[in-house]
Design goal:
single chain; about 120 residues; alpha+beta; Aminopeptidase; 4 helices; about 35% helix
Length: about 120
């Protein structure tokens, strides 16, 4: 898996400003995972899209990311969408592939790979 270069990481961090977080909370579904009352991860959903998901690196592999993703998919399914969409970063692409997402074309150079997963049992 290629590492995110310093310049790309800086652009990503700049795009994750406090202003962007406030807009996301105001306009999207945002759910936070906690362990012993401490926030350790979050997921952001906008209509049929998982806009963002994060788990503290020390808890990678703990199942928190899978739980957050499952919750996001349940919200999308309950809203009547037949599939969930997202853009996978380099380091998260395998995570999504293992959970049934399929790549939707080549990876843009400066963005995540578009991916989609059918959600069985979505409301008509």
């Amino acid at each position: 898996m290629p590492a995110m270069g310093e310049e790309r990481a800086r652009r990503w961090a700049d795009a994750s400003s406090e202003e962007r977080v406030v807009r996301a909370i105001d306009g999207h579904e945002v759910w936070v995972a906690e362990v012993d009352g401490v926030p350790v991860g979050w997921v952001e959903v906008d209509r049929d899209r998982v806009e963002g998901i994060y788990v503290h690196p020390r808890l990678a592999g703990s199942g928190i990311g899978s739980t957050l993703l499952g919750h996001a998919e349940a919200l999308i399914r309950a809203a009547g969408f037949p599939s969930a969409a997202l853009e996978a970063s380099w380091n998260a692409e395998e995570f999504y592939l293992r959970r049934g997402y399929e790549a939707q074309g080549p990876r843009p150079e400066e963005a995540g790979r578009p991916m989609r997963k059918p959600l069985h049992g979505a409301a008509p």
